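Retry 2 of 3 after timeout on previous attempt. Resubmitting structure tokens to design endpoint.
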């Protein structure tokens, strides 16, 4: 049986809906990874769930006159619904308010307090007790967590800043910094009062953590293997020295500190709960337990979490579990240091093999802000757009190593260019041509041309090459490689021109269709982690044999097609195809403008609403699939000009002698154009429509007297003329003239 792999996504906080930035940070990358693993036949369990404890939920409940349970019940449904609609293939999506989670958290706390696994002990096991003065509301008779203290921000003067952060200017604060602090519960002026809490001695655990990170326990040097943005933050904390961290709080909403442990420590347990940042990651364990119970095998969770068998022998080889945490960069320290420390002290738990944290995703050049309503809510967006379009476009923008930006124009460009023009166009032409000329059956190939062999070689190499990118958490590159395979198919189909071949050499046309259909079949598997709905529809069109599900299912049988099968021809000659259909519809400009209007319109911020709703702009276009037979019209004529206006333009024939991509510029190709009398550099925004190989050697028409301008630090001296057809596809305006010839 394959080695067990436990994959987690950060538990979303059930205090509001989630937006696209959250999806890009911790959920979509994890789903890409897990779906790939399932297609490989791996034994993987994907765990997530709502984080439902903590002071912020209590604050919201008090503000809205509801109970904390009402708040979490509402948002748990909204969050899970949005994630499921986006195609997240969780094996389990649980809740930290569940009894099994409370019991598991209490067990962790009790073990560390009484019988820690590592030799770090004092009167409270591995914990220490710490007493300090904290703010106390004399009227309500409760200690005030930071969020229960409001006052004037010392930075911007906001009179309603919280004790941990000012929502107006974003400054991080402490209650002591607020001017004229007051209780958010009663408006009383807080007083200082002593309280005692359990402290996690991270300083004592630091040598153990450093040894584990170096690979002392399992030979994996995480400082070298993990992403630089992750190790950089971890090194910074280690160099500063880890300090004791309080893991209990004085609030009403949370998992209570065990009364017997509090009594033994001489501490009043009333009103004391376990800190949400201690209990939340334990949710990965408790949710796995809940999943195992649902499978009818309550002890199955130990296969994925425990490092030893029941008889005490260590698990090795294919029995040893692997643990991977997908998170945003704000959670790196908790998953790279704090939770591993908790697992060490509890004992017998697997420690993370990888923590592939992403950076932040911005929105239209600005940070997501729930307080200002500058956000696109996941559940709301998916009411208007197919999940596959979001999965693919957002996948190309993932902030894997640095902050990235979600731009609606780029979203439209990715859908219209990559999905509709490249992938959808290739698939549709290959299938419709086969149906119209060969009765919907895969033609038998003849002698393979050099170009046909190259395509089959690309198919053979793709699963291993793309799979290596998934395995190393390079999901953007995996997406680019996959769509480039479709571009290869487009170029092959265009160059072979089977509509011409069939007139003079039917066998050559059959070979072109045979190879193109094999590429479609390969893509129907390789696309599954990215656009699972479209991939399934493509397999139906191809009438392909059954494949392993990328969703949770016990279907590891070798009789089903899997990832590695995408390397070989899957459609024998004579194989009957299903009916072709359009994979992706283009997004009209009006639809995208409507989204901009929604974003610009006043909204009710998620943190201030009393229900999980987002205000929308009425009477705007939404994404509506059009009938396949519908043909768009030509673009309208531009305003009339006089001859003298046209005469100012110097059009020349030029041959493209160099073509290459520009790093980090997804839309631009850098071209060198031979004009006969000189070579000119032009940056052209056609990279989403053509690969460098597709344009090299073409003789095109350029505007030669256009004033140069800088783009991406490079000078562009001219513009290539392109024609845009009714289908939205770009085509070169080509000529047989020699380079430098004037075009009249």
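Retry 2 succeeded. Sequence:
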């Amino acid at each position: 049986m394959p080695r067990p792999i436990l994959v987690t996504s950060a538990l979303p906080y059930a205090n509001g809906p989630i937006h696209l930035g959250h999806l890009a940070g911790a959920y979509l990358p994890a789903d890409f990874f897990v779906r790939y693993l399932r297609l490989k036949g791996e034994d993987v369990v994907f765990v997530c769930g709502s984080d439902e404890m903590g002071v912020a939920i209590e604050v919201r409940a008090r503000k809205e006159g509801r109970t904390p349970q009402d708040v979490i019940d509402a948002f748990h449904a909204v969050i899970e619904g949005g994630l499921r609609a986006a195609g997240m293939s969780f094996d389990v999506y649980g809740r930290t308010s569940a009894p099994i989670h409370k019991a598991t958290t209490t067990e962790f706390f009790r073990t560390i307090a009484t019988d820690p696994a590592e030799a770090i002990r004092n009167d409270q096991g591995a914990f220490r007790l710490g007493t300090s003065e904290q703010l106390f509301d004399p009227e309500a008779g409760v200690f005030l967590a930071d969020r229960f203290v409001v006052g004037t921000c010392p930075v911007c003067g906001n009179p309603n800043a919280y004790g941990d952060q000012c929502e107006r200017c974003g400054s991080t604060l402490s209650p002591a910094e607020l001017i004229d602090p007051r209780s958010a519960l009663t408006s009383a002026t807080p007083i200082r009062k002593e309280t005692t809490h359990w402290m996690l001695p991270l300083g004592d655990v630091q040598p153990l953590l450093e040894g584990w990170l170096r690979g002392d326990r399992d030979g994996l040097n995480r400082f070298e293997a993990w992403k630089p943005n992750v190790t950089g933050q971890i090194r910074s904390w280690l160099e500063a020295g880890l300090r004791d961290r309080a893991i209990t709080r004085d609030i009403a909403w949370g998992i209570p500190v065990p009364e017997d442990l509090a009594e033994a420590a001489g501490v009043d347990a009333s009103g004391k709960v376990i800190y949400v940042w201690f209990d939340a990651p334990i949710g990965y364990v408790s949710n796995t337990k809940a999943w195992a119970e649902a499978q009818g095998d309550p002890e199955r969770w130990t296969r994925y979490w425990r490092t030893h068998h029941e008889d005490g022998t260590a698990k090795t080889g294919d029995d040893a579990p692997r643990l991977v945490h997908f998170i945003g960069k704000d959670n790196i320290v908790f998953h790279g240091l704090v939770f591993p420390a908790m697992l060490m002290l509890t004992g017998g738990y697997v420690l993370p093999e990888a923590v592939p944290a992403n950076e932040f995703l911005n929105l239209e050049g600005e940070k997501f802000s729930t307080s200002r309503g500058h956000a696109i809510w996941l559940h709301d967006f998916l009411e208007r757009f197919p999940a596959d379009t979001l999965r693919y476009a957002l996948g190309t923008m993932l902030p894997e190593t640095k902050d990235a930006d979600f731009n609606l124009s780029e979203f439209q460009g990715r859908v219209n260019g990559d999905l509709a023009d490249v992938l959808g166009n290739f698939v549709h032409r290959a299938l419709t041509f086969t149906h119209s000329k060969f009765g919907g059956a895969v033609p038998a190939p003849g002698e393979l041309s050099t170009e046909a062999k190259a395509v089959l070689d690309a198919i053979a190499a793709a699963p291993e090459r793309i799979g290596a990118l998934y395995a190393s958490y390079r999901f953007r590159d995996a997406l680019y490689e996959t769509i480039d395979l479709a571009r290869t198919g487009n170029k092959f189909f265009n160059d072979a021109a089977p509509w011409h071949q069939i007139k003079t050499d039917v066998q050559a046309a059959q070979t072109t269709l045979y190879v193109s259909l094999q590429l479609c079949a390969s893509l129907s598997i390789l696309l599954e982690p990215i656009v699972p709905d479209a991939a399934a529809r493509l397999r139906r069109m191809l009438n392909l044999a059954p494949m392993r599900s990328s969703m949770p299912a016990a279907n590891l049988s070798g009789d089903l097609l899997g990832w590695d099968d995408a390397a070989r021809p899957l459609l024998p000659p004579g194989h009957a195809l299903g009916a072709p259909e359009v994979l992706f519809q283009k997004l009209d400009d009006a639809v995208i403008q409507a989204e901009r209007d929604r974003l610009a319109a006043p909204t009710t911020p998620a943190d201030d609403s009393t229900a999980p709703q987002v205000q929308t702009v009425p009477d705007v276009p939404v994404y509506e699939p059009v009938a396949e037979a519908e043909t768009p019209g030509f673009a309208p004529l531009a305003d009339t000009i006089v001859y003298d206006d046209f005469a100012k333009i110097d059009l020349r024939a030029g041959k493209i002698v160099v073509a290459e991509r520009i790093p980090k510029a997804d839309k631009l190709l850098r071209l060198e154009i031979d004009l006969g009398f000189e070579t000119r550099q032009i940056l052209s925004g056609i990279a989403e429509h053509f690969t460098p190989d597709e344009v090299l050697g073409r003789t095109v028409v350029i505007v030669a007297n256009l004033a140069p301008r800088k783009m991406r630090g490079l000078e562009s001296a001219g513009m290539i003329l392109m024609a845009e057809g009714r289908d939205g596809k770009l085509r070169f305006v080509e000529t047989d003239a020699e380079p430098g010839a004037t075009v009249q």
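Attempt log closed. DSSP finds 22 helices and 26 strands in the chain.
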